[in-house]
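Archive entry. Fields below.
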Amino acid sequence: MNGFAIVWQERALFLEGLWNTVSLVVAAIAISVPLSALGAVVLVEAPRPVARLARALIDLTRCVPFLLLAYVIYYGLPQLGLRFDAWWAGLVTMTLYNAAYLAEIFRSAWLALPKEGFEAARAYGFRPATLYRRIVLPQIAYASAPLVGGQIIVMIKDSALLMIITVREISFAANSINANYFTPFAPFVVAIGMYWMLSLIVEAWVRRVASGARLRYG
Amino acid sequence: MADAAPAVSARLVCKQFDGIEVLRDVSLDVAKGSTACIVGPSGSGKSTFLRCVNWLEQPTTGQILLNGAPMGVVPSPKGGTRPMTAKELALARTRVSMVFQHFALWPHLTVLGNVIEAPVHVLGRPRDEAVEDARRLLARVGLEAKADAFPHTLSGGQKQRVAISRALAMKPEVLLFDEPTSALDPEMVGEVLEVMRDLAKEGMTMMVVTHEMAFARDVADTIAFFDAGRVIETGDPKAFFTAPQTDRARRFLTRYGI
Amino acid sequence: MTWAAFETLLTGAGTTVALSLAGLAIGVPLGLALALIRWARIPVADQLVATYVSLVRATPLLTFVLFVFFVLPTMGLELDPVPAAIVTLALNTAPFNCEIWRAGLTNFPRDQLEAAEACGMTRTLAFRRIVAPQLWRVCLGPLVSEMTILLKATPAVAVIGVVEITRAASRIGAATYDPLPPFLAATVIYTLLIAVIVQAQRVIEALIARRYGYAAP
Ligand SMILES: Nc1ncnc2c1ncn2[C@@H]1O[C@H](COP(=O)(O)OP(=O)(O)OP(=O)(O)O)[C@@H](O)[C@H]1O
Ligand SMILES: [Mg+2]
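PREDICTED_STRUCTURE:
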């Protein structure tokens, strides 16, 4: 039987995979963006010892492979009495892992911003909360959008590794069809096509933000 | 007669960038051994014209002749012309050297390395000979002691003097300068102009785009005044600076307090 | 954790390093070749490279290695797990390296190239004498980052049965029912490896800066 016909026949498996990949990525973004923004604030503004601790944690996370962190959370944490099922372990891994990278992205975007604008805002009587909300954060968002987009694509790709801890995502679907029907070509081409499509969507989003940034910053 | 031909002759040079006209019917002759200074307001096309002379920009229409030989194109036997191949163009460019506003030294090579790079690797001169030549050229701009230094350790004026040595090392027929002192601190402008003055005296053929009006008045044999992509005045510097013919030139000179 | 377990981990570390180095040895020059094709705007080849880059940049290494391991044999190219892993790592890192080299090429100071052209250098000669000696210095930093990314990406090849650090750690954990110590040891090994790479980069950049006064023009 034609490989693509088999994929079509098993489309439920692929759709489940797509759903799991997308839901994991979206949920991880939704949690890790605020978490990492907080992390960036800690890195830049917190008292010395706290900032040091945050820096050490972030650097440590950035040193290990995604899969290792996934193993620690899925197989290691139950030892300490924390048990997740595969999807939740995947979400925790993706959130923590990406928060570390995003915090670093936000921090450097922040430090690279021209300081005059902040001073002007203070001179106009902005209070800290308003200053962050109206002046600092929007600029960080624009400045870091391309890197955040890149990180989201990395996140999508990392999610494939969750197959190894039995999350039923896209690559899991492709691999199980390959294992059951011995037709590797079609399922993997479809899987790669799905990943490609997802990252093209992210790139299109980055382009839109970038054109908004060009409008403002030239 | 090739010998009577001007060193550089631009004939009705036009240049467009994406349909926008930047040069229009520019014609200019530079006699052998003379210095032509090109002046005019910003954006008037001076750099573009200079870059057309060594084909860094291709004129949209018109001709550049170097000592009578066309630049950038080769007359074909059947009549008409064809564009030069990359090799032919590279060879033709060795006859004209250029000094850039921002020096454009190669930072990975020493001062000496910069000067001998093209003679050795483009002209194929023996290295010893090129080195000897380079040391002589560096000595005449007062930089023999810096031969083994890297460009980043030099001052702006020193960098530009190295760039001039590099240009001279090619033994060019014509030397082009695009605002060679504009990127320099005021106290370094003098040392570079001094070198250029000497070159003019020795009979080097030079085309100089500059905003140094005093230099242009003293050194130039010809002035060409550019405005909005056209040459609207050419001729003797004395006449140009004391009695400009056009309103535009008068207004331009007023800004320099002339 | 026993000494034998620790030895297993170290063997895994050796595999990780060897795989990464082999991937780099092929991927970095391949990336340069791809970048040059795009830089020279060779028609058709240019578009093909652009598509390849876009596709691979979007494909997870895990999916890619499964593809290479299972699909190539159906086309008559049988590869053992280790060669398949090396081929995949190389093909996977090449597009990223291509983009790094290409950025270095397109951002190369134009005035230096013009000065070369004005001296009568052809494009090839200018590349060889002026661009190449400076290019690798500009690209060093990003290439090293890419190197650390490759190192951290290698666990994906575990899926076709190659035993590198992470896989070794999980095996030990499964055998001893005590997974945290081997994971911790693996973390330390990765951190050390990355620290070594980053430190080497710092030293090289300092040497460049001392000699030429800049690390990137
Ligand atoms: N590569 C290019 N593409 C498009 N337009 C260009 C390009 N180079 C120059 N121009 C345009 O051509 C016009 C003439 O530029 P040019 O650099 O020759 O002026 P200039 O007389 O040298 O000015 P300046 O004194 O400021 O150096 C300008 O309007 C400029 O914007
Ligand atoms: Mg100019």
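CURATOR_NOTE: The radius of gyration of chain A is 21 Å.
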